[in-house]
Every structure is written in C-alpha cells, then in structure tokens.
Amino acid sequence: MITPQEIRKKAERKYIDYLKSLVSKTPFDKLIIRGDKKYTKSSLPEFEKEIKAIVSQSKEKNGYGYTLDFQKVKTKHLGTQDLPISIYFETERDFLKFLSKRKEVDFFKFNVNKITNVFPDLEEWIINKPIKVIQNQNNWDDILKVCLYFKHNPTPNLYIRELPIKVHTKFIENNRGVIKELLDIVISDYTQKDKKQFEKRFNLKYAEPQIRFKVLDKEISQRFFSGLDDIAIPISQFENLNLPIEKIIVFENKTNFYTALTLPKMNKTIALFGSGFSVSNLKNVEWFNHKKLLYWGDIDVQGFEILSQFRGYFPNVKSIFMDEETFEKFFEKDYGTISKVLTQLNLTEKEQMLYDILKENNWRLEQEKIPIDYVNSYFEKEYANA
Fold first, then answer.
1. Chain centroid to CA 125
2. Which residues face 375 on adjacent strands?
3. What is the Cα–Cα distance from 107 to 93, expressed in whole angstroms?
4. How confident is the model at residue 92 (pLDDT cuts 50, 70, 90)?
C-alpha cells in the first residue's frame, strides 16, 4: 500500500505541471495520485497501522489534502477489509495546502502577471520554466529593468557596470543566467547567437584577454615601443599588430618566458606567453599565417595537447625542445597529470610517438628543467643557419 510519504513525493512531482497550467489558464481538474492497490500484509495490527497512517494526512482527517475513496476488498489473509482504491486532490486548495505552497503560488501568479504585462512574449518561457520564476521571485523588478533597457538599447557597446540601469552594480553579473535566457527572447534579432560569453552575445564591451610578448630585437623595441621590450596589450590590438617581424616563439611556461630576454640576439623575433590552453586566444591572429611559428611546451601529455590545439589554428607551427633527444637528456623521472583525451591530435609522427610514451607512463619534463645554455646553443645555430 502507498504511504503518506510516497503520496507527498508524487504530489510534489505534479507541482511544476500545476504551475504551467496556471500560466496557460487551464482550469484545475481533479488531481489523481496513482498508488499500488495490492495489499500483502498478513497481520491485522500492521494493516490497521498503515490505514491509520494514510488517513492521518487525508482531507477527511485535516479538512484539506488528498481524498481517499474506500472499497470493500477481500484480502488473502485478513478477509474483507476497506481498502483505499482511489487517492486524489479534489480542489486546488486541497493540493496547495497539503504541499504548503499557497503563499509561493500567490507570489508566482503576481510575478507572472508582472512579467507578461511588460513582455507578453515571455509567456512561453514561463510555461517551459515556471520554477525559474519562483527561484528569482524577489528579483523580478530588477530583472525587468534590465530587459527593458536592452529592449530600447539592444546594442549598448558599454561595459556591464556602465549600463545606466538602477540596479546593484553586480546584479547583472550575479543573475546573468536567467537574464541571458530572457534577452535571447526579448532582443532576439540583435543577439550574437553564436557567442557564449554574455558580453559578446549582447553587444557589450568586455575585458579582453591580454597578450603578453617580449620583443627580442632591440631595434624593433626602440623603433616601435620607445625601448620597451616586455609588453601586454588586448587581443584585439594584438590581432592588428603590424611589426617587421618574421618569427614568433610561443612559450607555454611563464618561468621560461621571463628569461626569454637572456636568449641570444634574435632579429625580427618576438617571444609570446601562450599560458597553456589559453593559446585559444590567438586563433584569430591572421598574420601568424605568414610568420615562422615556434612552440615550446612542457614535454608531457598536456604540452603536446596544447601544441595540437595551437597547430589546429596554425598548421605551420613547429615544436622546439619537445623531442625524444631532449627528453632523454634531461628527464628527472617526474610524473605529470593523467590525460583523458581520446581524440586524434595534430602531431607529427615523432611527436605522436613521444606523446604515446608520456601518456602510457604519465611522465613529464618541464621547460625550466632544460638548461639555458642548451637552449641558447639551439637558437645560436638556428640563427646562424637562417
């Protein structure tokens, strides 16, 4: 036999559909709770205890809640007994008072009217996600202020905290999930639907990633940057950079990037901090396609996975110090981070062979373990042969 606890759980599962019916203005109909009509207890005290429990929370006992319809049924062990054959909520009041949801529903109705009076086209969103109306029940005045502003200014081109909306400075940032869903409807014709970032999607300014690079050619440093050689600029500016350079060395590791200026003199060359998988920030730097690109990462699985990612943007990337000879020469039996990557990588045959060995043994040789004189020797030969 079904228990009062099971009846409550089943009633709670019907609550969202009930909320949807309020929005679509569907009249409340008798709400049936389906239960197991079979009865297997062989003890009369057990039977009486279960019947007493189910009746204790019924409308007959409390004046609200579920109604029980009984019928005389012949049982296997107890003879003929009155068993509940039907459980249902007869009225809306019975249902809501049983779930202690009357105040919540009143607030829900109030907010639904508030939302749809301002934006009738949000009714379908409310029907699909009524629980979100409740989750944000204390924020709807401010959420609607934000939506109204964007309705009248769909391409603001301002930072979030610059927007002239009378809400808390962090309100949009703290509620961007629900606001995003609403703006996708309210200003559908103006959203950048292929952009996931909130600011990009809704035509706002945003703090761009900074690209940090070092100018290894003193003449270029003096001519273009007044002698500055360690520079960080927004990615949009870096994408439009126009320098007389021929070679870019991308470092995964910040420690080695810091010491890049100790490398031999390198004409027409810059060193760039890739910051691991953040090399994705560089994918739209079109002028990279016409330069010599060198990538120096750790000799571990992640280093090669980042190289693969970078080469996916720029097939002309060549790896340096990521070979078997360097690994065997300086490996100190360090362990790395296990990789779960299963996709095919953009690696050369030799790189793939070393990657497989590293992955199987979880080995790692970090960049800073490679002596600087070994590095300098490589670049001296590189430029001597250039």
1. 21
2. none
3. 15
4. very high
Bridge partners, residue 146, by sequence: none
Helices (H) and strands (E) in the chain, counts: 19, 11
pLDDT tens digits, 170-194: 999 999 999 999 999 999 999 999 9
CB 306 within 8 A of CB 297: yes
Q: How far apart are CA 258 and CA 271, in angstroms?
A: 10
Q: How far apart are CA 355 and CA 133, in angstroms?
A: 50
363, 335 Cβ separation under 8 angstroms: yes
Q: Do residues 189 and 155 lie in contact, with contact meaning Cβ atoms separated by under 8 Å?
A: no
Residue with tokens 């189910």: 54
Domains by residue range for the chain, with CATH: 4-99 (no CATH), 103-201 (no CATH), 210-384 (3.40.1360)
The pTM score is: 0.65
Q: Which of the 8 DSSP states describes residue 14?
A: T
Spatial contact of 366 and 253, defined as CB atoms under 8 Å apart: yes
Dist CA 220 CA 28 (whole Å)? 77
Q: What angle do CA 288, 246, 306 make, to 5 degrees?
A: 40
State whether residue 381 is helix, strand or coil: helix
Tell me whether strands 31-33 and 79-89 are parallel, antiparallel or unpaired.
Answer: antiparallel
